[in-house]
Write a structure and sequence with these properties.
511 residues, mainly beta, Tachylectin-2, Chain A, 1 helix, globular, Glyco_hydro_43, hydrolase activity, hydrolyzing O-glycosyl compounds
Amino acid sequence: MRFRNPILPGFHPDPSICRVGDDYYLVTSTFEWFPGVPIFHSRDLVHWRPIGHVLDRPGQLNLDGIRPSGGIYAPTLRHHDGVFYLITTLVNGPAQDGNFIVTATDPAGPWSDPHWLPETDGFDPSLLFDAGGRAWLHGARSARPSRYDGHLEVWLRELDLATMQPTGPEHALWEGALRDNVWTEGPHLYQVDGKFYLLVSEGGTGHDHALSVARADTVTGPYTGNPRNPVLTHRNLGLDHPIVGTGHGDLVQTPGGDWWMVLLAMRPYGGYHYNLGRETFLTPVRWEDGWPVPAQVESSMPAPAPAPHPWPPVPACDQFDAPELDPAWNHLRTPRERYWDLAARPGHLRLRCRPESLTERANPSMVARRQQHRNFAAYTVMEFAPRGGERAGLALVQNDDFHILLVRTAGRLAVVRREAGRDRVLARAEVPAGGRLWLGVAARGQDYQMSYATEPGEWRPLGDPVDGRVLSTPVAGGFIGAYIGLYASSEGGPAGNTADFDWFEYQPLPD
């Protein structure tokens, strides 16, 4: 049996994993998107189902006005003595930022409010529960002293589980494997056969990403690097390799004693562009001479034992007939009011036009899901009678300065491409006022073809294919993959009008 990588396609960076009995749980970063930190469940390491989000209440996660690619960085998930612990960093929070821990006895929630860790600094925090039951905080920060930009080190302190605060002395553990190395981050500690292993990423999160490992006889060190470091990187395989940027890994051992690693990587296409963001991959790990040896990451690899455990397939079409939004849908920043409604018109998603726009660092009226395939088609049908400057329709989003819209405005339908904060209308079509309007986008690589219909099945292209590179990280910057959303805005005007969406369909297209 073989499996296909990535195991979580689309924007699922910085994976962290833990096993409880025969069950595996995995989390990823979410940055400025809400709810924060999706949590997935698997029985075979290959097939994953979403079971909720860790930070699903506004009181847990304040993302008001957060910059693109600020917010929640690199969570770590661990389980100890019947309790799940998640530690992460809120970067550039408007009221409070830094490292914090939340806990739960059920990974599906509810999760606690944050326990902030004011005596720690840096980012990418992690936890180790050693064989004696002691808990150890560790993370990445600027080295002391720092000799150059990107010069980081890994720090360690004990965690008092009663107070949920660090205690005891602080230790600087390691600066990474290579001389003048940059961005030693994403640290995870493990205790294996009496020794302590420190796994870190270095080289940055782009093409030069790499994983290195050090070990020690005691948790506080001293740590000695593996002479064969880095233990995993694809930077030597060239910019045109189908999987690049391998790094930010986390190890897990199966009940049968095998070792595996989840990690992030990118799949560039259309040149060195990766609209899908950093995705979650899986690779086997063996041990040689007391060191872990991860396998080079491939698109197809032998599957873990035992037999596969797939979950029921997710429908391609959301009919909006559930009382709450499916976990696949996210909001941009923390929603402070419920601008969406699934009950006002059963079987429809109603979005209220509000003054907030996608071009602002605000929480616009938009629900969005990840783009997960380089070739895909997405369709919806909308009822919307715009007034004044209102607009509603489909949005393909990288951030507030880089996105593509297919929106109905007063009297016409328009394709708008926004790059570096400037809008350009690429195509227009006159459409009847009121009534149902079908909207669609079909992507073939970096060509995103917009289409519409005023009667069922009578699809027409709107303009030429749009260059989708505006949705890629090398163009737009940051750490986010592309999203596809349903959007409505009064563009600074008074709120009150609504747009109704009957259904939304997303499906991959053949390569």
